[in-house]
């Protein structure tokens, strides 16, 4: 694999000296050049850089310090290797550079084999770090996702509800919640088999995602029940979304009819608002939709100031909210 290097030096001769060292290693297919940290950041924003190579002398210490400060503040640049090149074997200058936090300090007069081995090590080390980050991200996503539908799971729902309710109380902006439940799902499994039931769940998840905004959170609440958290959405708008979802599921081409019942809960900045209030309201509205014949959506009365009776409702689990 060949890499891209960004070379920083205050003059053309110093940049060319560093470039000559990189050329000898045969590791880099592309070299970009700039004179200071400010221009280096512009290159980083517009190009994929694998290594930064700087001409190093006492008078450009400020530039190196500024560059490293920016790199440390950006997650995508934190592991970018920075290597300083000196004109000779000035050990004191190398120590000063290493104390700033760079990966390595090398002499431009070092043997080609030494440069190649050290630079390759830093490049491969960055690849290992990136691979580790990707694996960690994948594991984190798996821990918060439903394996069948790919939607967020109940743990993520609880955490997001805690955050969105707190934001609703703080800002006074509305917050809505849709609870979506498949009608007669047991009958689908018994008649068409569990594989067909899984296919229905996957297709419903696709519809919910397609009908939601990027700011919404779509989760599999459990079993055949789904939940959509709609920030800054009043009750009337949430009801429109619920009907759009219901109609889209009715129109799914799956070989047999599939319908859903939807409960809509909504609130706007009540100081005593808790996640379980909104969940209980949406859940009660869902059961009302079931009672009235299914394949319909019903709205709660919470937006009109009516508090739900939570005496038989489970307490919201704060531990889950921190997952």
Q: Can you describe this structure?
A:
The strands form two sheets. This protein has a five-stranded parallel sheet, with helices on both faces. Strands 7-8-6-9-10 form a five-stranded mixed sheet, sandwiched between helices. With 323 residues, the chain is of the alpha/beta class. The protein folds into two domains: 3-143, Rossmann fold; 154-321, 2-Layer Sandwich (Alpha-Beta Plaits), CATH 3.30.70. The model is unreliable at 303-323 (pLDDT under 50). Helix content is 49%, strand content 19%. β1, α1 and β2 form a beta-alpha-beta unit.
CATH superfamily of the largest domain, please? Reverse transcriptase/Diguanylate cyclase domain
Q: Please, what is the average pLDDT?
A: 88
Global Rg = 29 Å
Extended strand count: 10
List the helices and strands and how they pair.
Blueprint: E1 3-8, H1 12-25, E2 28-34, H2 37-46, E3 51-55, H3 61-73, E4 82-86, H4 91-100, E5 104-107, H5 112-143, H6 154-171, E6 174-182, H7 185-192, H8 194-210, E7 217-222, E8 225-231, H9 235-250, E9 260-268, H10 275-291, E10 297-299, H11 318-321
Parallel strand pairs: 1-2, 1-3, 3-4, 4-5, 9-10
Antiparallel strand pairs: 6-8, 6-9, 7-8
């Amino acid at each position: 694999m060949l890499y891209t290097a960004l070379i920083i030096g205050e003059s053309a001769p110093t940049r060319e000296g560093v470039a000559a060292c990189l050329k000898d290693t045969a590791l880099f297919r592309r070299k970009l050049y700039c004179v200071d940290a400010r221009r280096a950041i512009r290159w980083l924003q517009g190009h994929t850089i694998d290594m930064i190579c700087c001409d190093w002398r006492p008078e450009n210490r400020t530039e190196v310090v500024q560059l490293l400060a920016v790199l440390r503040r950006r997650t995508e640049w934190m592991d970018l290797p920075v290597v300083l090149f000196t004109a000779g074997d000035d050990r004191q200058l190398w120590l000063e550079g290493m104390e700033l936090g760079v990966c390595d300090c090398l002499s431009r007069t070092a043997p080609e084999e030494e440069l190649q081995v050290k630079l390759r090590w830093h490049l491969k080390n960055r690849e290992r770090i990136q691979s580790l980050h990707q694996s960690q991200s994948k594991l984190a996503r798996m821990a918060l996702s439903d394996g069948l539908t790919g939607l967020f799971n109940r743990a993520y729902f609880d955490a997001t509800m805690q955050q969105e309710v707190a934001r609703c109380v703080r800002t006074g902006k509305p917050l809505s919640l849709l609870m979506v439940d498949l009608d007669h799902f047991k009958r689908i499994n018994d008649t068409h088999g569990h594989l067909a039931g899984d296919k229905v769940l996957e297709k419903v998840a696709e519809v919910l995602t397609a009908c939601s905004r990027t700011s919404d959170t779509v989760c599999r609440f459990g079993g055949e029940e789904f939940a959509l958290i709609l920030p800054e959405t009043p009750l009337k708008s949430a009801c429109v979304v619920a009907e759009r979802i219901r109609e889209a599921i009715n129109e799914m081409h799956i070989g047999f009819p599939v319908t859903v019942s939807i409960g809509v809960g909504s609130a706007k900045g009540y100081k005593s608002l808790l996640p379980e209030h909104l969940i209980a309201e949406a859940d009660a509205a869902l059961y009302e939709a079931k009672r009235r014949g299914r394949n319909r959506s019903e709205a709660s009365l919470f937006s009109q100031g009516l508090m739900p009776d939570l005496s038989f409702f489970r307490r919201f689990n704060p531990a889950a909210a921190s997952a």
